[in-house]
């Protein structure tokens, strides 16, 4: 079941994952594959895209980092409060049919779609190597859940409180040098995704990445999430894009469009085009 | 062999299906993507005098028979849009229609004036967006004087080689009179209709779903409204009409042609049938024409007025 008009539901349960991140659970029949997202209507504030998880034994779950006005408002809500949900939308991850071992590279809330993918991969007995990074140990999302389902963890923290002291891309680069992996999946800040993509191209490992762009309709009509130069809509043809197709998205790692449609370069890119 | 090509105010379209303004057309790449999927021409999302974020979400959702939106004319502003218009012209092989809007007649002129050096084939003057108002708090195309003034003022800054289309709302009580007035003011064509004002309330939440409370309905729900508008306009004006509103299938398209449309705007159907809806509708039009023995679009145009 997909909803194109917001389906109003009450929040069944809220889990505090860490000081910045909360998970919200709902009783809602919905079809959703790993990598897809829902549009969540926070009444009086906004409607925003969030990755979706159908967690075994728990149902529909979204996991939200409080970053701005509407995510902070969502964090203030209590079990029993009403919100609206549309979707699920977009493309999803693919597990190669003969896959024996896959690698996931996650940064921040990028762990959300990857956790759902890990759950599905483990059910098929695929070996899952997870490279998970965060600022500090407490912010490593879903680490214990992943351990429980038999995912192999490679942790990195910016402050060195646990695991590798530094970027998650470093232990991942080491790993693909020596180990056989059928496919890599990466979701996180775009700069991190970009670095992982370069490593994968160099090692010729197939990969899939989530390309997140500003969303309005989620229905493929408003054009807000279209990327250069293909014009693909990240709410329909994306957000999950494979490494070969990614080569055609020339703005990846460079710029995105704001709500007005204006091109905005990422802070780490020198401005060359307007 | 049936022929879908049409002559729209002197511009040849390989088929009459035009991407409507505000759907997809926010960048050269998105327009190109629509062209690749079979559109005969494409319209840019309306460009205004300055950068506008539009309204907060929810700005768009769909309910069974229609799409509700209050995007609120988000656009990067004409200065920034110039490069995008230029890039679109360079990359597209089908005609580009540049849609413009403003809060005042003078600002319509400013926007048109900025775009003129690029020599656009068509400027569509959006007089009918439910998300902007004129100085008197009304949509331009609800007000005969305001609509006439905008078109004649824009006409003065446009070369004759640039065709001006006025986009109207069917909500004006004197709709056909306004159509006649913009024709007299120098419009080379009319686009009808824009979305229809509406609101949808969620009974559980107890409030409208759109953050802006009200918005415009498009899609299948408004097709009969659009047909009526085109049917009556065809009796009143001589200039060509781009019939728009709810066109989803080949038969919908034929209905508009028979009401008197020369070309057809397609928007929300992308939601119902995918980005390749232009190819699908064109094929269905061809199949219909073959079955019924029509060879050209022209022989069907305005047919519904015969009896
Ligand atoms: C496909 C996709 C999946 C996502 N999944 C998750 C998730 O699982 N968990 C999570 O915490 N966050 C997720 N996000 C990001 C989330 O949508 C933003 O954090 C949220 O919209 C911020 O809203 P705000 O009002 O709190 O902050 P704001 O101050 O409004 O925005 C902060 C930043 O969030 C981004 N953003 C804001 N609005 C939108 C929008 N409508 N569409 C896309 N990006 C926007 C922009 O980069 C902006 O600079 C996802 C985004 C996308 C596109
Ligand atoms: C999301 C959305 C945005 C729109 N934005 C504009 C716009 O910027 N300018 C305009 O003239 N019309 C705009 N429209 C109206 C369409 O161009 C068209 O007139 C209307 O949707 C009816 O056609 P349809 O039923 O095929 O969608 C918009 C419509 C939608 C659904
Ligand atoms: S968000 Fe509107 S087309 Fe993708």
Automatic annotation (TrEMBL), chain A:
Swiss-Prot/TrEMBL keywords: 2Fe-2S, Iron, Iron-sulfur, Metal-binding
Record-annotated FAD-binding FR-type domain positions: 1-95
Superkingdom of the organism of origin: Bacteria
Cofactor mode of binding and number, as noted: Binds 1 [2Fe-2S] cluster per subunit.
Alphabetized InterPro entries for the sequence: Cyt_c3_hydrogenase_gsu, Dihydroorotate_DH_Fe-S-bd, FAD-bd_FR_type, FNR_nucleotide-bd, OxRdtase_FAD/NAD-bd, PyrK_electron_transfer, Riboflavin_synthase-like_b-brl
One of the GO biological process terms: pyrimidine nucleotide biosynthetic process
Annotated binding of [2Fe-2S] cluster, by residue: 217, 222, 225, 235
Keyword Iron-sulfur among UniProt keywords: yes
Pfam family, one: DHODB_Fe-S_bind
Cofactor: [2Fe-2S] cluster
Keyword Iron assigned: yes
Molecular function terms from GO: 2 iron, 2 sulfur cluster binding; flavin adenine dinucleotide binding; metal ion binding; oxidoreductase activity
Protein name: Dihydroorotate dehydrogenase electron transfer subunit
UniProtKB/TrEMBL annotation, chain B:
Cofactor binding note: Binds 1 FMN per subunit.
Alphabetized Pfam families for the sequence: DHO_dh
Enzyme class, UniProt record, top EC level: oxidoreductase
Positions of the Dihydroorotate dehydrogenase catalytic domain: 4-289
Gene Ontology biological-process entries: 'de novo' pyrimidine nucleobase biosynthetic process; 'de novo' UMP biosynthetic process
GO CC annotations, alphabetized: cytoplasm
GO MF terms, alphabetically ordered: dihydroorotate dehydrogenase activity
Keywords linked to the UniProt accession: Cytoplasm, Flavoprotein, FMN, Oxidoreductase, Pyrimidine biosynthesis
Cofactor(s) this protein cannot do without: FMN
InterPro entries referenced in this protein's UniProt entry, alphabetically: Aldolase_TIM, DHO_dehydrogenase, DHOD_1B, Dihydroorotate_DH_1, Dihydroorotate_DH_1_2, Dihydroorotate_DH_cat, Dihydroorotate_DH_CS, Dihydroorotate_DH_I
Catalytic site positions: 129
Primary subcellular site in the record, as a coarse category: cytoplasm
Positions annotated to bind substrate: 45, 69-73, 126, 194-195
Localization annotation: Cytoplasm
This protein's pathway: Pyrimidine metabolism; UMP biosynthesis via de novo pathway
Catalytic activity as recorded in UniProt: (S)-dihydroorotate + A = orotate + AH2
Top-level taxon: Bacteria
Binding site for FMN: 21, 45-46, 126, 167, 193, 219, 245-246, 267-268
Family: Belongs to the dihydroorotate dehydrogenase family. Type 1 subfamily.
Role, per record: Catalyzes the conversion of dihydroorotate to orotate.
Name used for this protein in its record: Dihydroorotate dehydrogenase
Protein source organism: Candidatus Roizmanbacteria bacterium RIFCSPHIGHO2_12_FULL_41_11
């Amino acid at each position: 079941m997909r909803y194109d008009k917001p389906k109003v539901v009450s929040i069944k349960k809220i889990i505090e994952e860490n000081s910045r991140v909360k998970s919200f659970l709902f009783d809602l029949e919905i079809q959703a594959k790993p990598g897809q997202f829902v549009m969540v209507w926070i009444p009086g504030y906004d409607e925003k895209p969030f990755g979706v998880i159908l967690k075994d034994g728990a149902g529909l779950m979204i996991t939200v980092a409080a970053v701005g006005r509407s995510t902070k408002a969502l964090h203030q809500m209590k079990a029993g409060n009403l919100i609206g949900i549309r979707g699920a939308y977009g493309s999803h991850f693919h597990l190669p049919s003969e896959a024996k071992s896959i690698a996931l590279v996650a940064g921040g809330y990028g762990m959300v779609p990857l956790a759902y993918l890990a759950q599905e991969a483990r059910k098929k007995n695929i070996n899952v190597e997870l490279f998970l990074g965060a600022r500090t140990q407490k912010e490593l999302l879903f680490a214990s859940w992943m351990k429980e389902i038999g995912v192999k963890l490679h942790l990195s923290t910016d402050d060195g409180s646990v695991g590798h002291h530094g970027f998650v891309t470093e232990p991942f680069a080491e790993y693909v040098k020596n180990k056989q992996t059928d496919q890599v999946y990466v979701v996180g800040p775009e700069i991190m995704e970009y670095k992982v993509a370069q490593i994968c191209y160099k090692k010729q490992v197939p990969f899939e990445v989530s390309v997140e762009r500003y969303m309005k309709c989620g229905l493929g009509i408003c054009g807000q999430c279209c990327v250069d130069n293909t014009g693909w809509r990240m709410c329909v043809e994306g957000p999950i894009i494979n490494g070969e197709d990614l080569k055609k998205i020339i703005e990846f790692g460079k710029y995105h469009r704001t709500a007005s449609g204006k091109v905005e370069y990422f802070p780490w890119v020198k401005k060359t085009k307007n | 062999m049936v022929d879908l090509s049409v002559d729209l105010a002197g511009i040849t379209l390989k088929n009459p299906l035009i991407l409507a303004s505000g759907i997809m057309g926010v960048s050269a790449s998105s327009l190109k993507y629509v062209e690749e999927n079979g559109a005969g021409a494409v319209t840019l999302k309306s460009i205004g005098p300055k950068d506008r974020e539009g309204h907060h979400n929810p700005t768009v959702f769909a309910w069974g028979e229609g799409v509700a939106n209050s995007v609120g004319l988000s656009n990067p502003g004409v200065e920034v849009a110039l490069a995008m218009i230029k890039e679109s012209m360079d990359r597209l092989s089908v005609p580009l229609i540049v849609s413009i809007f403003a809060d005042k007649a003078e600002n319509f002129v400013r926007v048109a004036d900025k775009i003129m050096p690029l020599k656009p084939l068509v400027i569509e003057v959006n007089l009918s967006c439910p998300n902007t108002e004129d100085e008197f708090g009304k949509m331009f195309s609800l007000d005969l004087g305001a609509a006439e003034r905008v078109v004649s003022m824009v006409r003065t800054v446009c070369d004759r080689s640039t065709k001006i289309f006025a986009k109207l709302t069917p909500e004006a009580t004197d709709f056909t009179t306004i159509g006649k007035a913009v024709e007299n003011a120098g419009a080379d064509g009319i686009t009808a209709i824009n979305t229809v004002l509406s609101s949808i309330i969620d009974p559980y939440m107890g409030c409208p779903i759109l953050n802006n409370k009200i918005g415009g309905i498009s899609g299948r729900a408004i097709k009969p409204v659009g047909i009526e508008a085109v049917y009556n306009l065809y009796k009143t004006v001589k200039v060509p009409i781009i019939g728009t509103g709810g066109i989803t299938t080949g038969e919908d398209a034929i209905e508009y042609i028979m009401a008197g449309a020369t070309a057809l705007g397609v928007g929300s159907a992308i939601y119902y049938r995918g980005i390749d809806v232009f190819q699908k509708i064109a094929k269905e039009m061809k199949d219909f024409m073959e079955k019924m023995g029509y060879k050209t679009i022209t022989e069907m145009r305005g047919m519904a007025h015969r009896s």
